[in-house]
Design brief:
Chain A: GO terms for molecular function: ATP binding; ATP hydrolysis activity; chromatin binding; DNA replication origin binding; metal ion binding. Chain A: Its main location: nucleus. Chain A: It is found in: Nucleus. The structure holds two protein chains of two kinds. By secondary structure, chain A is an alpha/beta fold. Helix content of chain A is about 45%, strand content about 15%. Helices cover about 55% and strands about 10% of the residues of chain B. Chain B contains 23 helices and seven strands. Chain B has helices spanning about 5, 15-30, 40-55, 75-85, 90-95, 105-115, 120-125, 130-145, 160-165, 170-180, 200, 205-210, 225-235, 245-260, 260-270, 275-285, 300-310, 315-320, 325-340, 345-360, 370-380, 410-415, 425-430; strands spanning about 60-65, 95-100, 155-160, 185-195, 215, 385, 400-405. In chain B, the strands form two sheets. In chain B, strands 2-3-4-1-5 form a five-stranded parallel sheet, sandwiched between helices. The longest helix of chain B is centred in the N-terminal third of the chain and has 17 residues, at about 15-30. Classes of the chains: A alpha/beta, B alpha/beta. The interface between A and B is large, with 92 and 99 residues.
Chain lengths: ~850, ~425
């Protein structure tokens, strides 16, 4: 662990008293109080749970204010869980005006924002202070004491709202009502007198929580029952899911060996209107995870996050002094987002502490997530409105990257803002399209669907048409629309097994917060990309429902970039919106995936057409597969390519080894599956005869098993059918079915070779030339001849046929025409007489075509 | 036309001929679209339906029009487009992007061209175009933003489709066809190509995304149709100002087409190629002989035009050679016959020539070695002979191996037409052995 260079004197921390609780899973001891001594000074500061403290930041005159929620020791490091308060200067300049008045110099705001680490190292605690809650309308009491702060409002990184202590306390009575959840915040343990008013205020806070020892007994006795309850809750939970896959995932989670213990640092929001939901969810989730504690291998995993977070909280500020120097205003904002910590989770954490013996800490994270998800949604709605007036000083400097752990939505909004702002002065009249209308988002932004940033932050688009496209009228038109490859089917039939495999792979990685790679292969048109996208859609739905942590989905396609190294640029752009050169992007991503961050969602990266990312040194592939193995990456990479043995064929060992053995191959569809696909797409629209469907699917299955081909043939068949109806009688109202004949016609159109008909319709000299070629081949016994040789034969054949012989120039042009059709394969034409000629069709085909005439 | 002219509809012959020339040259050289495309009704209908669905229903499609050169692929497409654009709805919504594989030789140029034709470049900002990668991302983004029912359909015409296939990774084709197979802005990708095997050139992923619709265009015209076509091409429309001249001309055209020698010429053309473009060239040659003094096309004109048309390029070049050069050519002809196409060098040719001089020294002078060398180099510059390998600079010029790029028939023909060709030379050329 690093220490700030600013620390002139080292502070020594000691626990006062014995540990009040011990978390077996996390191997943490919890203490009621802490005494801090500065080396060489006699003064000792006592800090206890519930007190307000100053925590050193990078600004020595204005340390951070926070409230201690928990004191704990894990693997030798002393830490404190805190609830942050932000001071005015920590709020970004442009948002301060939201306050609407001059802030009191000692005013702080209860921080309810997301995205910051609420674990701080005990060494960073400076001293205790007093925080007084002042009613919204009441004036600030006159106080010259710089150690007294006043709190009126809360700040959630977007807006101020009235903060009352009952709001903040809301979770505690709820927690108390749960048999398992609550735990005492150790009221008896040396509350070393904060300010009188504050202590008064704090007391009721602890009141609802029962006595610690009593609690412990109660919890242990009810443990068995809880397990049962939890199972019930869980099964209820899963029963409510409609889709089989979701219930599967729920079951999976239930019996999962993997613990979400790593998901330590989830952002949590304090949000009052949700409290009623909250306790339900809390109850359910707390129990759920208890079952998971039975799994054996957790302690190992669960240790890491704590350490990471603690070290990060200190080191992150030291790591990037340059960033700070560059963007001072930025820094403030970032700090305000980063510094203060969160309410509900911390509170729950705290109150759960004695029970941690049976309940892993992760349990609360889960419940907290549920809440956070909802709050996020609300916030995004609010931000839609509020951010209208935020100014857009944003420049995407690299330093922003690490701070962009702030909500994605906000960033997005600001960008939109910026875009509008920038475009307007350029003259809206010139742009053919309208500037985008700003509508508040009703739903949380799905990152996968979110637009990757285009050059210079413009969002181009094809202008929209004046009147909407016509709707399909007849049943054949309807069928055709449904059979179009682009129409998104309700479900993906015949890929259930693959779907489940990928789903559980990705889901488990998201739940564990780990990373991994998967290689998916299969010939074109077997639904690889569609299945993965479906999986992501399902995962996104369940993450919206709060069943799994939220994650970021990005998609890159080897074919959609100009150079393999553009992959870095695209990933970075989709991840953070920054633009960078490939090299710079690679280093930024490297940093991002290898360094711990306060709050990091799992990133699911879909790499389509992997083989095109091949470079001679294979460093793009190497990086893509190496990042997931990093400890802090939380990156799941799904790669798609056509060949099954791609790793063995083109990858060097170190790349193939990192890709691992998680592979899946999509088999070409069998005719039954193709039939099922068509019928599921048609969805009871009667447009095809049974036999016709079977013919199509059998034919395609025999050829390639490509579903796209199958759908295209069906579409063409409906057209042919339509035309034949139109020809027969104009009254197309009567529903016609596609018959076998129509399918046959479509098939022959698509698959028959045009060579024979091309030869048949060729001119006389061209036909003679082809015959001359064959005659010359036979004479030479080779499959190649020069033009001069063939020309001699041609002149001879012309005499036989009684046709005027051609001159050399004309013969060459005849030869050139056949070459353009690729009936002949020719050398470059400047070879003139020495041009070498080969046939591109079999001799039999030529003879057949010429004879049939 | 003013009323006055319409009343006394007798213009001077010169004016009539000038108008005639203008009318017919427009038809033959500018490739004006015919009123109705002939012989391609089914294909026409197919393409019209397809594009109409894209324009009106927002259904994405991809199609290849395949046919030999001069079969009327572009004509078909243009007439389809003309028909579609008569519809008010379509002409207002449909956006067009025309690309040509000969012009857009790589994806970078093609992307810029697409951006320009879609009028998206002013969205990019002051810096008109960023890097290739940005451009691609930009365009894909634009297409992705759209959806089936609300965005304007875009028609992509890829002329010389086969040349796009050779672009790196087939990025452009993959992306266009991918858009056409996904729920993005509606696009119709129409490719025109003369390669029958174009599908085999597509990369498997690109191929899978292509809808495999192919419209084949072949010239299935028969000879009577061909003659009729010639007649309609030459006949003047009824709107021609001078009625008397019109009637005279049209009847003379009819008589011309029925003439025996003209029919033979047309038959020869028809045998050679059914391509109408080459026919147009022939007819323009005939038309250029029409003047005020001779206000009709005579059969002899057609025959003469045909002779010009079918003249062998190399044989024509031989007419411009000196006697010495001709001698060298003949010597080379004997050498390549003697050694069955094996290459030879200047020294061998010179020896052969010297042998001829020894036998027939009466009519020819002996030339110095440098003069012969000069003549030899001239032949090489005319590409009548070609060095065996291009890096022949190292060997001495006398011994550089070359090959003759002339056929025996060409040499014989040239000698027969060569003005005042010495008979010795002719005999030497005809003799089987030197």
């Amino acid at each position: 662990m690093k220490y700030s260079t600013r620390l002139r004197a080292r502070r020594l921390c000691e626990w006062s008293g014995k540990p009040v609780a011990f978390d077996r899973k996390l191997k943490t001891h919890q203490y009621g109080g802490l005494s801090i001594r500065v080396e060489g000074l006699p003064r000792v500061t006592h800090v206890s749970v519930g007190q307000h403290i100053l925590i050193e930041g990078d600004d020595e005159d204005h340390p951070y204010v926070a409230k201690v929620l928990q004191l704990l020791e894990s693997s030798g490091e002393k830490k404190a869980l805190v609830q942050w308060f932000v001071r005015v200067f920590e709020i970004p300049l442009n948002k301060r005006k939201l306050l609407g008045r001059e802030p009191h110099p000692n005013e702080v705001f209860h921080y309810e924002g997301a995205n910051c680490d609420n674990e701080v190292s005990a060494e960073s605690i400076l001293r205790t202070v007093t925080v007084v809650h002042v009613e919204g309308s009441a004036p600030f009491p006159a106080s010259s004491d710089s150690d007294t702060f006043f709190v009126k409002l809360s700040w959630d990184s977007r807006r101020f709202s009235v903060w009352s202590e009952c709001e903040a306390r809301a979770p505690s009575p709820l927690a108390a009502s749960l048999p398992s959840g609550p735990s005492p915040s150790s009221p008896g343990h040396a509350p070393s007198s904060p300010g009188p008013s504050s202590s008064l205020r704090r007391t009721p806070r602890c009141r609802p929580t029962p006595d610690f020892n009593v609690m412990k007994r109660a919890s242990s006795s009810s443990y068995a029952e809880e397990t049962r309850l939890a199972q019930e809750a869980e099964s209820l939970h899963s029963a409510s899911k409609a889709s089989a896959s979701k219930s599967l995932s729920a079951k999976r989670r239930k019996c999962s060996v993997k613990t979400p213990g790593v998901r330590k640092r989830l952002q949590l929001f304090d949000d009052s209107p949700l409290d009623s939901d909250l306790d339900l969810l809390l109850a359910e989730d707390l129990k759920t995870v208890e079952i998971q504690t039975l799994s054996p291998q957790k302690p190992r995993i669960s240790l890491t996050p704590l350490r990471r977070s603690a070290s990060y909280s200190q080191s992150e500020e030291e790591d990037r002094p340059s960033d700070r120097a560059m963007t001072p205003s930025r820094k403030r904002e970032a700090k305000s987002l980063k510094g203060p910590m969160l309410g509900v989770l911390a509170e729950v954490d705290h109150e759960n502490s004695p029970l941690d013996r049976v309940t892993p800490r992760s349990s609360k994270r889960k419940s907290a997530q549920v809440v956070s998800k909802r709050i996020q949604r609300q916030l995004s709605m609010l931000s839609g409105r509020l951010d209208m007036d935020t100014d857009s000083e944003e420049e995407f400097v690299p330093s922003k990257q690490d701070q962009s752990s702030s909500s994605e939505e906000e960033e997005e909004e600001e960008e939109d803002e910026e875009e509008v702002g920038k475009r307007r002065p350029r003259g809206a009249a010139r742009t053919p399209r309208k500037t985008p209308q700003k509508t508040p988002r009703k739903t949380p932004r799905k990152i996968s669907l979110g637009s990757p940033r285009t050059p210079r932050q413009y969002t181009p688009s094809i202008p929209s048409r004046c009147e909407p496209a016509r709707r399909p009228g007849t049943n054949l038109e309807e069928a055709r629309a449904r059979l179009h490859v682009s129409s998104v089917p309700e479900s993906l039939p015949c890929r259930e097994q693959e779907f489940q495999d990928i789903y559980s792979f990705v889901e488990s990685k998201i739940l564990d917060g780990t990373g991994g790679c998967m290689y998916i292969s299969g010939v074109p048109g077997t639904g690889k990309t569609a299945t993965v996208q479906e999986v992501v859609r399902c995962l996104q739905t369940s993450s919206e429902n709060g069943e799994i942590p939220s994650f970021t989905f990005l998609e890159i396609n080897g074919m959609k970039m100009t150079d393999p190294h553009q992959a870095y640029v695209q990933i970075l752009q989709k991840l953070t919106g920054q633009k960078a050169t490939p090299d710079h992007a690679a280093s930024l991503l490297e940093k991002r995936f290898s360094s711990p961050a306060p709050r990091k969602e799992t990133t699911v990266l879909l790499v389509d057409e992997l083989d095109l990312l091949w470079t001679r040194k294979q460093n793009v592939m190497y990086n893509l597969f190496d990042w997931p193995t990093r400890r802090h990456a939380r990156l799941v990479v799904l790669t798609i390519a056509n060949t099954m043995d791609l790793p063995e064929r083109i990858m060097i060992n170190r790349v193939a080894s990192r890709l691992g053995l998680t592979r899946m191959s999509f088999q070409p569809y069998s005719f039954k599956q193709l039939q099922q696909i068509i019928s599921s797409r048609l969805n009871r629209i009667k447009a095809f005869e049974e036999d016709a469907l079977q013919l199509v699917s059998r034919k395609v299955a025999a050829l390639s098993g490509d579903a796209r081909r199958c759908l295209d043939i069906c579409r063409r068949s409906t057209e042919i059918c339509e035309h034949s109806v139109g020809g027969a009688k104009e009254g197309g109202a009567r529903a016609r079915l596609v018959e076998i004949g129509h399918v046959m016609e479509a098939l022959s159109e698509m698959f028959s070779s045009a060579y024979v008909s091309a030869i048949k319709s060729a001119s006389v000299q061209e036909q003679i030339f082809l015959r001359a070629v064959i005659a010359e081949f036979r004479r030479l016994g080779l499959e190649e001849a020069t033009f001069q040789q063939v020309y001699v034969q041609q002149v001879a054949l012309c005499r036989v046929e009684g046709v005027a012989p051609v001159c050399v120039s004309e013969g060459l042009s005849v030869c050139g025409r056949l070459g353009a059709l690729r009936l002949l394969l020719l050398e470059q034409s400047h070879n003139d007489l020495l041009l070498r000629i080969r046939l591109n069709v079999s001799q039999d085909d030529v003879l057949f075509a010429l004879k049939a005439e | 036309m003013s009323k006055r002219k319409a009343r006394d509809a007798h213009l001077p012959v010169g004016d009539c001929v000038a108008q005639l020339q203008q009318e017919l040259r427009n038809r033959l050289c500018r490739e004006e679209l015919p009123e109705t495309p002939e012989g391609v009704t089914a294909q026409h209908k197919h393409l019209v339906e397809l594009l109409r669905r894209t324009a009106l229903h927002g259904e994405s499609n991809s199609v290849l029009v395949v046919g030999p050169r001069g079969a009327g692929k572009t004509m078909l497409f243009k007439s389809v487009l003309k028909e579609l654009l008569q519809d008010e709805d379509i002409s207002q919504t449909l956006m067009q992007v025309h690309l040509n594989g000969l012009l857009q030789t790589d994806d970078k140029i093609a992307l810029k061209e697409i951006t320009r034709q879609l009028h998206l470049e002013n969205v990019v900002g002051d810096k008109v175009f960023g890097s290739f990668a940005e451009n691609l991302a930009f365009l894909l983004e634009a297409l992705k933003k759209g959806d089936r029912s609300s965005s304007r359909p875009v028609l992509f015409l890829l002329d010389e489709f086969d040349l796009f296939v050779h672009h790196k990774n087939q990025t452009l084709l993959y992306n266009l066809l991918d858009v056409s197979q996904s729920a993005q802005a509606p696009v119709a990708v129409v490719g025109l190509t003369c390669r029958l095997d174009v599908l085999e050139l597509l990369e498997k992923r690109v191929k899978s995304r292509f809808s495999h619709r192919q419209i084949h265009l072949f010239c299935n015209t028969t000879f009577p149709e061909y003659v009729r076509r010639v007649q309609t091409l030459l006949q003047l429309p009824d709107t021609f100002p001078d009625q008397r001249f019109l009637q005279d001309w049209n009847s003379s055209v009819q008589a011309l087409c029925e003439h025996r020698s003209v029919e033979d010429v047309l038959q020869r053309h028809f045998n050679s190629s059914k391509d109408f473009r080459s026919l147009h060239v022939l007819l323009v040659l005939c038309l250029s002989r029409v003047s005020a003094s001779k206000p009709s096309i005579a059969p002899a004109d057609v025959v003469e035009a045909s002779r010009t048309y079918f003249a062998d390029a190399k044989a024509n070049m031989l007419h411009g050679l000196s006697i010495l050069e001709l001698c060298l050519i003949i010597a080379m002809k004997h050498l390549s016959e003697l050694y069955d196409g094996e290459p030879f060098n200047l020294q061998m040719v010179h020896n052969e020539f010297k042998k001829f001089l020894q036998r027939k020294s009466s009519s020819m002078y002996n030339f110095e070695q440098p003069v012969i060398m000069k003549a030899f180099e001239h032949l090489q510059q005319l590409e009548l002979i070609r060095p065996l390998d291009s890096s022949g600079a190292r060997t001495q010029r006398e011994f550089q191996l070359v090959r003759l790029l002339l056929d025996t028939s060409q040499i014989t023909e040239a000698l027969q037409r060569y003005p005042q060709c010495p008979t010795d030379l002719k005999q030497w050329a005809m003799s089987a052995f030197a």
